[in-house]
Amino acid sequence: xxxxxxxxxxxxxxxxxxxxxxxxxxxxxxxxxxxxxxxxxxxxxxxxxxxxxxxxxxxxxxxxxxxxxxxxxxxxxxxxxxxxxxxxxxxxxxxxxxxxxxxxxxxxxxxxxxxxxxxxxxxxxxxxxxxxxxxxxxxxxxxxxxxxxxxxxxxxxxxxxxxxxxxxxxxxxxxxxxxxxxxxxxxxxxxxxxxxxxxxxxxxxxxxxxxxxxxxxxxxxxxxxxx
Length: 227
Known about the structure:
This protein is about 0% helix and about 40% strand. The protein has about 230 residues and is an all-beta fold. It has a domain at about 45-145: Jelly Rolls. Strands 3, 5, 8, 10, 13 and 14 form a 6-stranded antiparallel beta sheet that branches.
């Protein structure tokens, strides 16, 4: 039977609680199979973070200027960016995961085609962009969510307490060290149910605590990259 994990309600603000090579956690069943909740996140938002932000000149914005610097979903969620027209400049997102680990992710614009991120952010500190004249960007969220631990399998999705159709696990990236473009070191989950800010979405995962030949990894995965 899977252990059901009720999310902690407090993490020390901006103090990383990432544990290198973590082998055990009280909320993970001894066989790794654990049920976790993503809360009641809102549906994907095209401009949840930044809306029609001009990139005519290179610049950045801090959390005081962002629409919302805390992302919903218990373990954070993945971002997406799109330009209003032809653009191949970069957008750099700096923030933290749910453990308050610093993260830096760099996305390269592809004109009016949406570019999806790979890393799950819980908080955003700053967004920086390169210049493309006469162009704006939207930075929003995907229905792709972060995980508390490194996952190697997903078994079922539960929506408002009822068994639903299982979503998709994107495997953790084991690259060591991580870079600004690698995927999330714990993996991410694309839920099958459409979030709406009301329904509670849960899923059962198989978490693993293995380490690489350098002794890095464990339940919290490889340490995030931060510039």
